[in-house]
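can u pls check wat happens w/ zinc ion
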Amino acid sequence: MNEQPDYKICVVCGLKFSKRAKWLRDWHAVRYCSERCRRQKITSIDLEIEDAMLDLAQIRWQRSQGSLCPSEVAMKISDGDWRPMMERVRQAARRLAHADKIEILQANHPVEPTRFRGPIRLRWKA
Ligand SMILES: [Zn+2]
């Protein structure tokens, strides 16, 4: 038997979601938590955000063993107003934390990528 767990991590937002009745037959193929994430998908902007996040986190770590604010990533990617980019930056942070490439910190301690609320910092995970 190849039993699948009753929850998954959404490939877009990086949040945990549970099996629902409508997915019983094709749960193995479900990748998105919601219609919104299914429509959004992972685009070239999201990959650009991930690259910039890894670059900045690695540089910060190598210079000072430090962490960075997600807004630094949004500012690097945006031409003008970076704030609309922040939700995508937080999603990228969750994806990279699930992939074990960065850590999401609160009060300087790593937190579960699906659980945090409020301000975070990002740290390179060497
Ligand atoms: Zn999602």
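Strands lie at 7-9, 16-18, 102-106, 109-110, 121-124.
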